[in-house]
Amino acid sequence: MHTLIQALLLGILTGGVYALMSTGQTLVFGVMRVVNVAQGIFVMLSAYLSYTLHTHFGIDPLATILLVIPAMFVVGVAVQILFIKPVKRRKAEVSFEQTLLIMFGVAIGIEGILDLIYGADYRSIHTSYANASWEVGGYTVSVVRVLAFGVAAVLLSGLWLLLRKTRFGRSLRATVQNPVAAKLLGVEAERVGALGMGVGVALAGGAGAVYGMLYPFNANSSYDLISRLLSITVLGGLGSLPGAVLASVAFGVVEAVVAATISPVWAPFTFLAVLFVVVLVRPQGLFGTVERGAL
Known about the structure:
Layout: H1 2-32, H2 39-57, H3 61-90, H4 96-118, E1 133-136, E2 139-142, H5 143-165, H6 167-177, H7 179-184, H8 189-214, H9 221-236, H10 241-261, H11 267-281
Antiparallel strand pairs: 1-2
C-alpha cells in the first residue's frame, strides 16, 4: 500500500507537467484546427533555452521561465505567420494532412538546429535543490517535482483567467466554438489564431523549463514526448482543455503505478491499451464532442 500511494503522489505531480504541455497542444487545435505535432520539440527547445540561461548566465531554472515563456510565445506567433498563414491565404480551406505536414516540417527543422548547436549528448539542468526531498506522512516527495507541479498550476490558472476574464480570451473561445460566427461578429480570426498559437507554444515554454530539471534530454527526446502528448490529447478529447488536464493526470498516475507495481517497461503500453479501448467506445475522447470546439 505504501508503494501504491507513493506512486500515486508521483503520478499526480508528473501529470501536472503533462497537463501544461497538452493544454498548449489542445489550445492550438481548438483555435486553428492544427494538430501541433511540433509541441514536443517546442518543449525541448524551451528546455535548451532554460539550460543555456542557467549554465552560461547563472539564472535559476525557475527564474528562466520568465524569459523562456515570452521567447516561446514569439516562436509560436512566428510559426503561424511564416508557415500556417501563407498556406491558408492560398487555399480557402487547409486540410488536416497539410497542417500536419507543416508542423512536422517545423519540428524536423528545429530538431536539426538543436542538434547542430548542442549535439546529440543528453543534457540536464542541475540545481542545488535537484536531489532535495520532503518527508510527508512517511512518504518522500521530490522538491523539484513539487516545484514543477506548482509552476504548472500557476500557469494553468493564468490560462483559465486569460480565457475567462479578458476580451482576447473571449475572442479565443468564440473562435474555438464557432469560427464562422466569430468572424461574423467581428473577431479577427487571423490575429486571434496567431496569438492563440503563441499562447499554446508559450505553455510548452513553461513546461520545457521544468522538464529539464526532471529528466535528461536531447532533441530526439521530443519523439517520445509527442507520442505521449498526442495520446493524452486524444483521450481527453480534441479541443477540450479540461479533458487534457484530467487525461494528463490519469496518464501520470497510470504510468507511475504500473512502473512501481509491475515494470517501467509496461507503463506506456498500459496507457495505450486504455486509450485504445476508450477510442473504440468513444472516438471523440472522454470530454470531446462530435461538434468542433469544446474549450
